[in-house]
Amino acid sequence: MKIFSKAQIYAGDTLTSERQKISSIELMERAGVQIFNWMHLRMQGAQVPIHIFCGIGNNGGDGLVIARHLIIHGYNVKTYIVDYNNKRSADFLAHYERLKGVTKAWPEPIHDPSDFPEIAPEDIIVDAIFGIGLNRPISKWVKDLFMHFRKSQAFTLAVDVPSGLFTDKAIENENDAVWAGFTLSFASPKLIFFLPETAKYTAQWEILDIGLDPEFLLTTETDAELIGKAEVLPNYIPRERFSHKGDFGHALIIGGSYGKIGAVTLTARATLSVGAGLVTTYIPKCGYTAMQASFPEAMVITDSHEEKITKINYNIKPTVIAFGIGAGTEGETLEALEHFLKENKTPLVIDADGLNMLSTKKSLLKYLPENTILTPHPKELERLIGAWKDDFEKLDKVKAFTKKYKVILIIKGAYSITVFNDKLFVNSTGNPGLATAGSGDVLTGIITGLLAQGYHPSVAAIFGTYLHGKSADLGALNLGFQSLIASHVIEYLGDAFLDLFLEPEPPAVEKSPEHEEKQKEA
Ligand SMILES: NC(=O)C1=CN([C@@H]2O[C@H](COP(=O)(O)OP(=O)(O)OC[C@H]3O[C@@H](n4cnc5c(N)ncnc54)[C@H](O)[C@@H]3O)[C@@H](O)[C@H]2O)[C@H](O)CC1
Ligand SMILES: [K+]
Q: Any alpha helices (H) in 44-80, and if so which ranges?
């Protein structure tokens, strides 16, 4: 699913109005009605007090539409205008007039904390104060209102985005935005829902279809995309009946050190479990028996050293090489990496200590083959690209880094983001059960195994991240988050593949009846 930028959303609105010959007032009506429908379906007329806080722009206008429909349907509504600015938008004013037509209880203006209403924990707050139009610092009293919401403990439903969040920069203080229980966002998820510093402001979110022009939605290229089943499925390569193991590549996994042979085992198992034809591990001597005994499917080459990698010497022709898992960062291992990189032409995945070593000797980065995949967690990323001021700067730095070295980088996190060719591929699968030892080693194995089978490196990174998260999701259904360990993620890979071909997921977008009618007519 495409993640549109703020500018693209505004452009889409204008284009939709032109092509469908509807005014922006009617587009706002559609948006508000969609939210009303969502609430009505769940509330079924319940008389819980609903406090609707409207700004003076179009986000506030949406709030007025919601208020009007809730009032018409007999809900217990209180509407407020948060007067942070005297330039009320034209569409806001149009819907203000419409609201006046259905109630004598006109919205109450709020100018300062003395106007804040009492809100009980059982009440519902609708936050329609700021949407994507927020473009400058917010007045202190408006931030106090956000905190008044939070202190009330009432369920808060944000319209489009939690008020106070910018679409393109982080906020400095946690008290400067609304903390929403749910956000109903129009047309496209917003990038801020996926970044660690801003995602926390909404516990859940959902996208509502407001019938933007289908051609605009289809043809507009975005800088970011949310990756779900629909996005990965077209890349799946089926297996031919007459295929043999030589068709699926030979992966070489280089890593391990005394006490960290298990990491290589996990990677190698994941590589084979995702479909690679053959896997060879290159490990220090001390790991030989452990590897052969615990994972008989893998072949083993040992380094001349007992406890660490000191020279990378092999007489096989791998299709892909993964380097770094459990390797440690000792001088001799770094030297071995240096020699290896200067000779190597085979596609590469670099993880863990491989990344840490590259961070200590950045001059080696230029030897990485084009489209090498790097899989850092946040600390490894910081060592690699330096500190960042906020998530947006982090993304810019990663884009610049991947461009400079022509590599693919996966920023691992709750929503892992693959950065390739200036574009962000945001993964939608995975859960907190993955916060466990060895889950990164498994991800490296999955990606390596896909590369071995001939998937393009960008697809291997995106699809691999998806499968890793999906396995964990399916595993967690039986095991819960706490009991899930890295080995389970490997065990559930088969289910993750099978799940690709189950009934398609219901679309993340709820279709409006009006929109479907229009599509039928077209
Ligand atoms: N396709 C869609 O997604 C649709 C979205 N809609 C809703 O419209 C808003 C965006 O509306 P806009 O009027 O552009 O902005 P806001 O209501 O978010 O914003 C505020 C308003 O106030 C000014 N302003 C900005 N920052 C400040 C500040 N710190 N202090 C004071 N004033 C400020 C700014 O200039 C704006 O005028 C979107 O999020 C949706 O909710 C449409 O309803 C339908 C289509
Ligand atoms: K809002």
A: 58-72
